[in-house]
Amino acid sequence: MIPMNELIYDIPVAQLPVYRGQRLIVRSREPAMLPSLLAAEDPDAIVGIRLLSLEADSEALNAWAPGLPLELVMADPAAEFPLLYRHTNLLDNHPVRVMIPACPGFGKAVKVAVALDFAVRLEVGQPEPALIEELAEVVTFYLRQPTVAQPIEYFHSVLLGFYHDDPAPLWMLLDEDPHDLRYVSDAGVESLPGRLAGIAVDLAVETEQGEWIERVLAAGEDCRSCEFVRSCGGYFKWPNRDYDCAGVKRLFGQLQEAAAELRRDLSQTSLNNASPD
After folding, report:
1. Does residue 274 lie within any of the structural domains?
2. What's the total number of domains in the chain?
3. Rounded to 5 degrees, what angle do the CA atoms 46, 123, 139 make?
4. In which element (H, E) is residue 110 found?
5. Which residue range forms the structural domain that includes residue 162?
6. pLDDT confidence bin for 2, thresholds 50/70/90
7. Helices 129-144, 246-273: inter-axial angle, 10-degree rounding
């Protein structure tokens, strides 16, 4: 039975007794232990599993809890991408996503992950100019490579937001939404997710997007005049409020242009297929 509290808690498996009965993302470095440790839990309360070590053997999860989302967490994508091959059998019974930090050399890990049919979530932070170039190359790969069959986030959802004119802020798309998520450390300390850990919970959850940008991120003027504010939500103004967004605006522009192109192509196809009067 799902509790009235609709928050999702991202917990280490050792904290399971404390958070039993809540909606949980359980993270572990030892996947082989999870089927027995979670055997008595309400399966509807387990939202997903995060595997923190690609070195670990995940075979025990292959046929366990079919349909349960799994996320493989990379620390060093340039070195770890060959390890993805070990975990492809998980795709037989699970939706599997790879979390890849956007650090130098990450593009190859993205291409390998997508080729193996994994979805991807990028951890982008506040990228430096040199990294913007690699991100731009990955955006182009996502948009133009015909063999890409899995989403690369945040690019995928931002593109859909532009296409449907219904954007969602990156906090939501990259699993850092303070209204829905709480992160629990190995020591049991509860905080907001991701980079928001230092922000007071009550301040973050009681503000609308406009107030959030001005009161929490202190980036009101820059964001108010930005055409991409609805898609970004001030994401790139934290933690460094003086971050220069020129590079990330370029990436948003690529996705916006691609969405417009897709609308034109589909409109033209509809016209071509329409029956004559």
Report:
1. no
2. 1
3. 120
4. helix 106-115
5. 8-264
6. very low
7. 10
